[in-house]
Amino acid sequence: RAKQQGRNTYQWFASDLNVEANERVELRNDLQRALEQEQLEVFYQPMVESRTGKIRGSEALIRWHHPVRGLMSPIQFIPLAEDTGQIIELGRWVLQQACRDAVRLLGLGYRDHRISVNVSPVQLRQAGFVDLVTETLRQTGLAPELLDLEIVESAILYDTEQVVDRLRKLRELGVGIAIDDFGTGFSSLSYLKIMPVTKIKIDRAFIKDVISNRSDAAITQGILSMAHHLSLDVVAEGVETNAHAAFLRKNNCQLLQGYLFARPMPFQNMLEFLTTQAVANAPHGTDDSSDG
Ligand code: C2E
Ligand code: MG
Ligand code: MG
Ligand code: MG
Known about the structure:
The protein has helices at residues 2-36, 78-84, 87-107, 121-124, 129-140, 160-173, 188-194, 204-207, 214-229, 242-250, 267-281, and strands spanning 40-49, 55-66, 70-72, 114-118, 147-152, 176-182, 199-202, 233-236, 255-256, 265-266. It is α/β, with parallel strands linked by helices.
């Protein structure tokens, strides 16, 4: 009887795996179609200067309008795309779209608006990645100084020498390198020594309870102090409350990003958001957003 039960358990387990495998195959095929049928869209989330409340840039975040499942978050398909290699094509598309949109913003007079693009470790392990960025900048006409590439610490876990060499070349082009989700990786501090980094993004895991949790506050202050000594820019991710923003402003965190200001949104909405902000920040405006 026990044996029978054991077998049933095993069968359930096996059929669960099958369902999961089928689902992955299906999703992979869907994603191939998505790339061909323009079901993907780049959303943007602004980064706000803590001192002035002005929008200094935005992060490109991919979304998938799946014909059956609806709007899908990248956490539901980026890992799969990394496994199947589809991230290469997808990443190329996001980079090009983001650079194009950045040039559109320039054309509308937002002269110093920076664009951040997430880059997968899988993309960075490609020998042609530096050429891809160079070519995309040339094609779109975006100044390299306005582009930041966001990478996670694990990006240099494998093929470290080649990846670091590619990052150096990108820096030489003028492109900025931001460490995303900073503090959640394995050895943040030693990586900082070998990575040609210009910006750190403090992971939202530290910001969430920064007001109530002493360790989170200490870690955040420590990261900020270290970043200042290394002359790196800092962005706090996941800023959701005025208390978060006030704490970060007090501790000289230059840039803030989070639902308090705006959720990621389509490019068109971002344009409207920028217009509203420009009015709010105009010298004759009555709404002074830089109080603190
Ligand atoms: P990430 O790069 O760390 O992006 C920040 C994530 O936090 C975004 O989720 C954003 O919507 C979310 N977020 C922003 N502010 C807040 C807040 O105040 N509270 C909370 N709870 N969340 C906030 P999203 O858009 O779902 O993206 C998830 C992850 O997917 C990204 O994390 C990034 O690792 C990856 N990703 C997104 N777009 C791309 C892409 O084009 N290429 C690659 N390789 N990865 C991407
Ligand atoms: Mg990011
Ligand atoms: Mg992040
Ligand atoms: Mg993340």
